[in-house]
């Protein structure tokens, strides 16, 4: 697997911010992440949580995958697990794995999240208006928080919802939980640059 180091994350965020011509202060204003935190992340002094990456991505109107400079669609659709981009949350140990880079340019993000027992991601920022998200539980017992609603799902269950609301997930345990997320941005105002799990994202 290709694990993202703090230096990879720093370079991706700095490069994307500079593409927009923004200062760290402007990115802080748009994302709600403090300038001091952005400075530390870009200097590779701190590893951001997936939620913070989601805020930064949402502030730029891109996905976490875009933010970390995932390359476009490969010549073939095969994406071996060992080659998939993996991001590990430094606080919770939650893992985010980009399953299909090939679909990114088509406005669809396919991501697998792995949650250690009793962990989760909370208050993930909304995706853009028009984004629709499917959550399919591969393993374990999970509670999804969709705006003010809580939905409990077991392995094999799924839920589809409008993703332009604050949302998150909790592994109810016992044991590890895995959830596959498919986020469709094709009906958003800017389908070519999704924001989500994302813009983790979730």
Report on this model:
By secondary structure, this protein is α+β, with helices and mostly antiparallel strands. Helix content is 23%, strand content 30%. It has helices at 6-20, 24-31, 35-42, 50-60, 64-67; strands spanning 2-3, 85-88, 95-98, 108-115, 120-124, 132-139, 141-146, 149-154, 158-162, 167-171, 177-184. The strands form two sheets. A seven-stranded mixed sheet has the order 1-2-3-4-11-6-9, with no helix packed on it. A four-stranded antiparallel sheet has the order 5-10-7-8. The two termini are 21 Å apart.
H-E order: EHHHHHEEEEEEEEEE
Number of strands: 11
Beta-strand level of the residues, as a percent range?
25-35%
- CATH class group: Mainly Beta
Give, in spatial order, the strands making up the sheet with the most strands. 1-2-3-4-11-6-9
* Count of the domains: 1
Are there runs of 5+ residues with pLDDT below 50, and where?
Answer: 190-202
Q: By CATH's scheme, which homologous superfamily applies? A: Jelly Rolls
Proportion in helices: 10-25%
What class would the helix/strand composition place it in? alpha+beta
* CATH topology description: Jelly Rolls
CATH architecture: Sandwich
- Please describe the biggest sheet, giving its number of strands, its sense, and whether it closes into a barrel: 7 strands, mixed
Q: Name the average pLDDT.
A: 84
Keyword list:
202 residues, alpha+beta, Jelly Rolls, seven-stranded mixed β-sheet, four-stranded antiparallel β-sheet, 23% helix, disordered C terminus
Give the topology:
Layout: E1 2-3, H1 6-20, H2 24-31, H3 35-42, H4 50-60, H5 64-67, E2 85-88, E3 95-98, E4 108-115, E5 120-124, E6 132-139, E7 141-146, E8 149-154, E9 158-162, E10 167-171, E11 177-184
Parallel strand pairs: 1-2
Antiparallel strand pairs: 2-3, 3-4, 4-11, 5-10, 6-9, 6-11, 7-8, 7-10
């Amino acid at each position: 697997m290709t694990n993202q180091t703090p230096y990879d994350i720093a370079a991706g965020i700095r490069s994307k911010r500079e593409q927009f011509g923004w200062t760290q202060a402007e990115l802080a204003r748009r994302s709600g992440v403090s300038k001091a935190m952005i400075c530390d992340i870009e200097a590779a002094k701190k590893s951001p949580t997936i939620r913070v990456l989601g805020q930064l991505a949402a502030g730029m109107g891109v996905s976490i995958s875009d933010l970390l400079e995932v390359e476009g669609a490969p010549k073939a659709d095969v994406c071996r697990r060992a080659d998939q981009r993996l991001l590990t949350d430094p606080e919770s140990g939650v893992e985010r794995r980009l399953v299909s880079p090939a679909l990114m340019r088509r406005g669809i993000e396919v991501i697998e999240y792995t949650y250690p027992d009793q962990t989760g991601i909370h208050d993930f920022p909304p995706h853009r208006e028009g984004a629709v998200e499917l959550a399919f539980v591969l393993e374990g017992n999970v509670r999804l928080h969709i705006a003010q609603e809580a939905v409990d799902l077991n392995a094999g269950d799924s839920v589809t919802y409008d993703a332009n609301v604050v949302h998150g997930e909790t592994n109810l345990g016992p044991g590890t939980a895995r959830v596959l997320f498919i986020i469709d941005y094709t009906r958003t105002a800017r389908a070519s640059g999704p924001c989500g799990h994302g813009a983790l994202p979730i």
